[in-house]
Specification:
Number of strands: 0
Structural class: mainly alpha
Shape: elongated
Helix content: over 70%
Number of helices: 5
Radius of gyration: 18 Å
Strand content: under 5%
Order of helices and strands: HHHHH
Length: 102
Amino acid sequence: MTLLLSGITLIMFVPAGVAVTQDVVHPGLRATSLSINIVVQHSLGSPLGPLFVGAVSDSYGLLNALRVLPVFTLLAGGLFLAGSFFYTRDLESVEVVDVEME
């Protein structure tokens, strides 16, 4: 049960991160922004996470490898917090485009 709750809460940042990337770019570049966001997230997290945990586990044991993981979660939270201070300024610099339906 703990692993299930951990798995659910660890990915709760994704909607907020995607929403911010969509807010602070020109409307014509939103698809490109989302694509780059997903590629970077999966390029850094998906292949490197298991390799890192495996390397630490081989050197220091599985328990120590799993103890290190929350440090990266706190680092990510700190980076999101730091980025939040620039959100309003970045949002103000986005060109306003009126969307019309024909």
